[in-house]
Amino acid sequence: MTSLVLDMVAAPYGHLCCACRETGDTLHVRLYLGKECLREAHVCSGCLGVGAEVEFALPEKVMKSQAVLRESQRLEQGLANDMGGRPQAGSGNSTLPGLRGDVRVEGKWRLQHKFSDGLKGTRLKLSDMADTIRVAAPNEMPVMIIEFRRLRESLAVLPYNTFLEIKEALNADEDS
Ligand SMILES: [Zn+2]
Questions:
Q1: Which of the pair, 75 or 63, is modelled with greater confidence?
Q2: In the predicted model, is pLDDT for residue 63 greater than 80?
Q3: DSSP label at 38?
Q4: How close is the Cα of 103 to the center of ligand 1, in Å?
Q5: Of the chain's two ends, which shows fewer C-beta atoms within 10 Å, N or C?
Q6: What is the fold, at CATH topology level, of the domain defined by 62-175?
Q7: pLDDT reading at 98 higher than 50
């Protein structure tokens, strides 16, 4: 995942301070998103001494990914409520785009949640299903929930073996 990095280096004499607009010894402050420098500013030692504030407007793409993350967490919580489980800590920030949420109903279900704004569909990757199976405990059924937000439609995708297990369980219920 790409991270925001604040880089600060003392600069040689001769830079304009962004706070007091005077030239002097400055601290060169740079904000990076991955390797891309988004913003930079110089702050003089005088201004640093009294606590200068350097304003960095968050770039649009960061704002967007935060909005996506929040939305993903909201949908994940909805799934947890439906299933009577709980979202797993630290999930949902794994990969962008195609954020995955992770909900667990201990001893029963392990669900990965994805959402898509596609109107025709989304790419289903076997590696995503493999991840879901990998994190599920032996007594938990792995299921991927794919939510098409704009179509207000959701699909549950599960391994064929899991499907057979559920079928067997339903048969057993009927027989008893
Ligand atoms: Zn200054």
A1: 75
A2: no
A3: E
A4: 50
A5: C
A6: Trna Endonuclease; Chain: A, domain 1 (3.40.1350)
A7: no
Does 163 score more than 90 pLDDT? yes
Contact between 43 and 27 under an 8 Å Cβ cutoff? The reply is yes
**Cα(27) to centroid of ligand 1, in Å?**
10
DSSP one-letter string for 100-151: EEEEEETTTEEEEEEEE--SS--PPPHHHHHHHHHHS-TTSEEEEEEEETTT
Residues 6+ apart with CB under 8 A from 128: 100, 112, 114, 144
26 CA distance to ligand 1 middle (Å): 8
Exposure string over 120-159, b if 16+ CB within 10 A, otherwise e = eeeeeeeebbebbbebbeeebbbbbbbbbeeeeebeebbb
Look-up of token digits 């025709």 = 120
48 alpha carbon – ligand 1 mean position (Å):
7
On the CB side of 173, CA atoms within 13 Å amount to 6
pTM: 0.58
What is the domain partition of the chain in residue ranges? 4-57, 62-175
Instruction: Please give the distance, rounded to the nearest whole angstrom, from the Cα atom of residue 19 to the centre of ligand 1.
Output: 5
